[in-house]
Amino acid sequence: MNDYNILKPFNHYIYDVLIDSGSSEILARYLNMLALLLVFTIILLVVDFILRKILLNLINNFALKTKTEFDDFLVKHKTPRNLAHIIPLLIAFELLPVVFVDFPAFESKMELVLRILGVLMVVWIIRSLLQTIRSFSKTINSLKDKPIDSYIQVAMLFVWIIAIAVIFAMLTGIEFIKFFTTLGAASAILLLIFKDTILGFVASIQVAINDTVRIGDWITMEKYGADGDVIEINLAAVKVQNWDKTITTIPTYALISDSFKNWRGMTDSGGRRIKRSVIIKPSSIKFLKPEEVEQLKSIQRITDFLNTRQAEIDTFNIENKRDKSILLNGRNLTNFGVFRQYIATYIEGHPDIKKDMTIMTRQLEPTVYGFPLEIYAFSSDQRWVYYEKIMADIFDHVIAAIPFFGLEVMEINSIEVKK
């Protein structure tokens, strides 16, 4: 009590005044305690306010002189403010004997409350530091696409477990080590309670090690209705912003237990696949007569092809003495085959098609609707809006070119339905 000699004259000041005025001793003691509690609370609040201002000014001035953003994030996540609370808490411990000089039982209970507040304050400081680390890690290019949130959450989980154990030990009087020994007996129940958390943590590690998913990847997961960019990977869930701007939440462990499509390979390739077909009406497909071939030679993209191929066909038919009075005899060009070659030449020369990736125009298996002619290529622009524009421009040209070859696009209402 020697440390409080300077405060002893004030211990019973209100008490003495009340006694002198004729108040009862019990009432005087309680009012004296409440008055001291009010005064010291105000003092602690003032000290806390001043310290916060000093620390914030020091950190802000220091941040202006440094190039790193770490100190900026310290301020953003209120680390200096949380640290400033420590000194008022220590002062409060020192003032307890003064405030509760006449109530030792109250003093012990308030001391317990302050100790619990101290534990919570430490947790809050650690939390702000971890949030600072998380925010700072997102400014480092090599860490932007890593599931840092998962590791931060695991760290906070352990911090809270230790904090709760310490508080429980304080309230019950059980030793800290014995508390964890007791928890060991209930490990099966704990595993059941934290099943999703454990699965999420393991999944986060596997996702990071195997580089399965990164923040910013476009993924498609039909089971959960997800089709968009990954915007967050944390301990419990992966958040995907769909193309319609809705948010889909997927359990983190689903990334290693379920099937999904990651479009990162397309992004890394520099091209985006175009795979679409137009269906040709079967009755419009025919052999080309010599005069029709000559007419098609005026289409510059296939002039050289027709000259070369027609010469080869004529040579073959003459050498093999084919009777060309009937068009079916020997080898012939078809309007469908010439049109396919035209489209292939058109796609290969298109400025928005990536030339170092697969380019193919092929005929698919016939269907009840007709003969599909598929264009398979990759656009050089991966952005969705521009990709759709490129594909639309290509098929606008394809559909408009079909009549020049005597072909027709199949229409559903043109199919004869037999009753």
UniProtKB/TrEMBL annotation:
<keyword id="KW-0997">Cell inner membrane</keyword>
<keyword id="KW-0472">Membrane</keyword>
<protein>
    <recommendedName>
        <fullName>Mechanosensing system component YbdG</fullName>
    </recommendedName>
</protein>
<feature type="domain" description="Mechanosensitive ion channel MscS">
    <location>
        <begin position="196"/>
        <end position="264"/>
    </location>
</feature>
<keyword id="KW-1133">Transmembrane helix</keyword>
<dbReference type="GO" id="GO:0071470">
    <property type="term" value="P:cellular response to osmotic stress"/>
</dbReference>
<dbReference type="InterPro" id="IPR006685">
    <property type="entry name" value="MscS_channel_2nd"/>
</dbReference>
<dbReference type="InterPro" id="IPR030192">
    <property type="entry name" value="YbdG"/>
</dbReference>
<dbReference type="GO" id="GO:0008381">
    <property type="term" value="F:mechanosensitive monoatomic ion channel activity"/>
</dbReference>
<keyword id="KW-0812">Transmembrane</keyword>
<dbReference type="Pfam" id="PF00924">
    <property type="entry name" value="MS_channel_2nd"/>
</dbReference>
<dbReference type="GO" id="GO:0005886">
    <property type="term" value="C:plasma membrane"/>
</dbReference>
<dbReference type="InterPro" id="IPR010920">
    <property type="entry name" value="LSM_dom_sf"/>
</dbReference>
<keyword id="KW-1003">Cell membrane</keyword>
<feature type="transmembrane region" description="Helical">
    <location>
        <begin position="112"/>
        <end position="130"/>
    </location>
</feature>
<feature type="transmembrane region" description="Helical">
    <location>
        <begin position="30"/>
        <end position="51"/>
    </location>
</feature>
<feature type="transmembrane region" description="Helical">
    <location>
        <begin position="86"/>
        <end position="106"/>
    </location>
</feature>
<feature type="transmembrane region" description="Helical">
    <location>
        <begin position="176"/>
        <end position="194"/>
    </location>
</feature>
<dbReference type="InterPro" id="IPR023408">
    <property type="entry name" value="MscS_beta-dom_sf"/>
</dbReference>
<keyword id="KW-0346">Stress response</keyword>
<feature type="transmembrane region" description="Helical">
    <location>
        <begin position="151"/>
        <end position="170"/>
    </location>
</feature>
